[in-house]
Write a structure and sequence with these properties.
The protein is an alpha/beta fold and about 500 residues long. The protein is built from 17 helices and 24 strands. It has 2 domains: about 5-245, Rossmann fold (3-Layer(aba) Sandwich), CATH 3.40.50; about 250-335 and about 465-505, Rossmann fold (3-Layer(aba) Sandwich).
């Protein structure tokens, strides 16, 4: 019988009043590969961060080799035999491959203040060989391409955890194949099989269901922060997994589908053959007046980067954009805003608000030139603008002079909407506009989006869930691996299923 290597009981995570993960029970045995699948935001990566010590759980318990597991850091978890390869690479470009592999562990190669570089390089070469790499350990990491750096990252984590583990190790891989070639993916799968045979456990996150079915023994399916299914891989196929991922749908009333209006024939934004090197290629579409256009795709599909180009945060490699028939180029978001495009960002606390400033300051901060004269800001105009928006959007606060960081997530999001609408822009890019807000606030935001389009403004929506994107959009473009893989155009009452969208995404 296999050893129960790792276990979670009732694990959950909350941020403020927002629960992103709740009541997760999971068992991981030695010598097996576990797959975690689900939409973006389903809770997979959050669970991985709790397991590896990057964050602490808000509730529940974890057990490693039968004993309750606590960790205050990733490093501490490494020493206990739990290691994670993150999507975001952590290697130091100025150091060599060998120095990166043994960073923080140089002491074993040091004597009297001198480092035995030859011994370190020799051990690094052995470590690289264990994952099928024949790199020069003296080579600087900055001289490697992204895929090669990813493989070095995997080699480093494997070395750390297997060296430190008292027994078998738990290795967490978060979308490890995203930038790898087919040959490199096959090599990685061989290493996963090797780790499995040695009695280690691997937890594997991937949006590519064919990979999950190929490399795992069991699969956990996540949706809305909960585990909705636990099954043996041999009992699953892609259609079964699609159905488990899709789950329930919210009613049309929640999304105010009765207020979904048909867009006009007027094109307000035309994108032709737009590309950003290495991210997305040859993207083209037309955005119509009064339309909600949904962008769907898994992480790394290119949808986020596409929006960055549209709002002037990045410059395209090739292709063109036209507004009202006139070609435009944006060097920064300010120029995009002046042309009529503004973004409500995904990371509200970091990118959307200035926490130490008041509600009023946050509403008018992008429009100071409109309420200023000769360097002086009109307090009267500022108060009127802010008060009007607070009343119009039903922002719950004691005073417009309250600090914005005292507001709930939903009310803070309304302030960001107020600032965007005050700009007078007629194209709004909404990047996960309901992330971290309660159900009541979500419905209010959906109603606000309907208000926006009824006035002839257009919206590009990156929904927090597929259900949201389908419920709010009149047209959906699906991106996969940087190209458009599908398009759905539909009136209210004739929405595509989540199943249809997921097939195009994966």
């Amino acid at each position: 019988m296999k050893e129960l290597l790792f276990e979670t009981k009732g694990i959950g995570k909350t941020y403020g009043t927002n629960t992103v993960l709740h009541d997760i029970d999971m068992k991981v045995y030695s010598g097996e590969v576990i797959g975690l699948i689900g939409e973006n935001g389903a809770g997979k990566s959050t669970l991985m961060k709790l397991i590896c010590g990057a964050e602490k759980p808000s509730m529940g318990s974890m057990y490693l080799r039968g004993e309750e597991h606590h960790s205050n850091s990733i490093l501490e978890s490494n020493h206990q035999g739990i290691g994670m390869v993150f999507q975001e690479q952590s290697l130091v470009g100025a150091l060599t491959i060998a120095q990166n592999i043994f960073l923080g562990r140089e002491k074993k190669y040091s004597k009297a203040g001198f480092v035995n570089w030859a011994a370190m390089n020799q051990d690094a070469k052995k470590t690289l060989g264990q994952v099928g790499l024949n790199f020069d350990p003296n080579k600087k990491v900055r001289d490697l391409d992204f895929a090669a750096r990813q493989m070095v990252e995997i080699a480093k984590v494997l070395n750390v955890v297997t060296e430190s583990a008292e027994g078998h190790a738990v290795i967490l891989l978060d979308e490890p194949t995203t930038v790898l070639s087919n040959e490199e993916i096959e090599n990685l799968f061989k290493q996963i099989e090797r780790m499995k045979k040695e009695g280690n456990a691997v937890i594997f996150i991937s949006h590519r269901l064919d990979e999950v079915l190929k490399v795992t023994d069991r699969i956990y399916v996540f949706k809305d922060g909960a585990c909705t299914a636990d099954m043996n891989t041999k009992d699953a196929d892609e259609s079964v997994l699609y159905e488990k991922m899709v789950g329930r749908s919210t009613t049309g009333e929640f999304y105010h589908e009765d207020r979904q209006t048909a867009p006009s024939d007027d094109v307000v934004l035309e994108v032709n053959d737009l590309s950003l090197f290495g991210i997305f290629n040859h993207v083209g579409f037309k955005l119509k007046k009064g339309e909600v256009l949904g962008l769907c795709g898994v992480e790394g599909s290119g949808k986020e980067a596409l929006c960055s180009v549209l709002m002037g945060d990045e410059g395209q490699t090739s292709g063109t954009m036209s507004m009202d028939g006139r070609e435009v180029t944006f060097k920064n978001p300010c120029k995009a805003r002046r042309s009529g495009i503004i973004c409500v960002p995904k990371e509200r606390r970091d990118e959307g608000i200035i926490g130490i400033l008041s509600i009023s300051d946050n509403i008018v901060i992008s429009h100071m030139e409109q309420i200023s004269s000769r360097g002086y800001v009109s307090g009267k105009k500022m108060k009127k603008i802010s008060s009007d928006w607070v009343q119009k959007l039903k922002i719950k606060c004691v005073s417009i002079n309250d600090r914005i960081n005292q507001l709930s997530g939903g009310n803070a999001q309304k302030v960001i909407f107020a600032r965007a609408l005050e700009s007078g822009c007629h194209i709004l890019i909404l990047n996960h506009p309901t992330r971290g807000v309660d159900v009541g606030s979500k419905e209010e935001i959906y109603s606000l989006i309907r208000d926006i389009t009824e006035k002839g403004n257009s919206v590009i929506l990156l929904g927090d869930t597929l259900d949201e994107c389908i419920g709010m959009s009149s047209r959906i473009i699906v991106l996969k691996d940087g190209v458009i893989s599908g398009e759905f155009d539909f009136p209210a009452g004739e929405k595509p299923s989540q199943f249809d969208i997921v097939k195009m995404m994966m």
